Amino acid sequence: MNLLIIDENLMLNSKIKKLAENNGYKAKIIAFFKEKHLSNLHEIKPDFILINLESKTNNPIETAKNLIEKGYKVIGYCGHTRTDLARQAKELGAVFVATNGMIVSQLPQIIEELRK
Q1: Would you say 27 and 3 are in contact if contact means Cβ atoms under 8 Å apart?
Q2: Which domains does the chain carry?
Q3: What does the pLDDT look like over 81-91, one tens digit per residue?
Q4: CA triplet 93, 101, 7: central angle to 5 degrees?
């Protein structure tokens, strides 16, 4: 299982990566996502792409939209008060939207449920 994490928050993305790897997943972080990364995704072959919806530099809603349109399974996450971002991601077609707390504590359960 390959996960791609798009998040410039070093504390959050490192927690997610460690949790993923501790549960047998391969995880790669792209802190600052650019359009050129879309052409490299076939090399990473992500089963799921996790995006911090509160990113200040990655334009997360537009990035999620582009990735979903290309057929990638996107999991968005944000703070629990950001229901506006969660709603937008769901409307775009994200396969799951979680709070930051859920993503750093329940990632394996989320992934396994989505694989069913």
Answers
A1: yes
A2: 2-114 (3.40.50.2300)
A3: 999 999 999 99
A4: 60
Backbone angles phi, psi at 67, to 5 degrees: -70, -40
Residues 57, 69: Cα–Cα separation, whole Å: 21
pLDDT in tens, 26-37: 999 998 877 777
Confidence band for 92, pLDDT divided at 50, 70 and 90: very high
74, 5 Cβ separation under 8 angstroms: no
Report the 3 state secondary structure along the chain.
CEEEEECCCHHHHHHHHHHHHHCCCEEEEECCCCCCHHHHHHHHCCCEEEEECCCCCCCHHHHHHHHHHCCCCEEEEECCCCHHHHHHHHHHCCCEEEEHHHHHHHHHHHHHHHCC
Residue-level pLDDT at 61: 94
pLDDT value at position 34?
77
d(CA 20, CA 104): 9
